[in-house]
Amino acid sequence: MRITPPEKTTKTQYAFDVAEIEPFLTALPMPVKPWPNAMITLKDGKTMLIRAARKDEVPLLLPYFKKLMEVEYDFYDIVGVRVYAELLGWYRNRLKDPYVMLGLIDGDLVGFANGRLWNKDINISHHTMTFVRRGQVGTVMYYCKMYYALEILGCQEFWSTFESYNGWRLGFQTRQPTYTWPEHQHELGGAQIYYINQDHWNSMVKGYLREQVGADLVFDNIPAELLKINENMRVPEEVAV
């Protein structure tokens, strides 16, 4: 957009250092408690560590999600595209207050969950994925996001929408109500917002993990060897979903 100046100027051109422009393009982060390390014993007896992803791990994750873009069943293609963009948005500082959780067993990446904070009261779920068909890994990863939002951060609401039938099943099992549509839309494609507020969490959903998996998240006294073996992740070489 160009508008003729209403006054004579001594200079007709100005140069900007990109470092001066970047503050206008990067969202100012909120002070947010990080996701702490947690572990859980799955139904198959394996111990999964759920830890926060590190930003330097994004380049390791991106090639796998690029492969998912070519998988034309169970909506993996659209999920692959969107997760790729979400990870890149975090990596390039173009996403407001994102978080990424990894589920790891003996260093192998078996689960993934991410989202972001709309504000201090609303936590937005983006995607939950599993890379193995066992132990209800997806249930655990989705629960971790709810727990993070409503217990650790003290948000008032947790918003989801679902792109696949497997994803919708998680919302169904936790009896999530919806906001009126199209007046209220989730940022992932404008679909319905499924939500959990504090009352719903405390009265119905908080015990969901024990009900489904038969175990709870453990945050204290995590063995040092479990942390060490999962410090560096191995991303699946092939898409096997």
Written description of the protein model:
Helices cover 33% and strands 19% of the residues. The protein has 241 residues and is an alpha+beta fold. The N and C termini lie far apart (48 Å). The relative contact order is 0.16.
Offer a concise description of the structure:
33% of the residues lie in helices and 19% in strands. With 241 residues, it is an alpha+beta fold.
Order of helices and strands: HEEHHEEEHEHEHHH
Q: What number is the mean pLDDT?
A: 93
Distance between the termini: 48 Å
* Contiguous uncertain segments of 5+ residues: none
**How are the strands of the largest sheet arranged?**
1-2-3-4-5-6-7
Throw out a few tags for this protein.
241 residues, alpha+beta, Aminopeptidase, seven-stranded mixed sheet, 8 helices
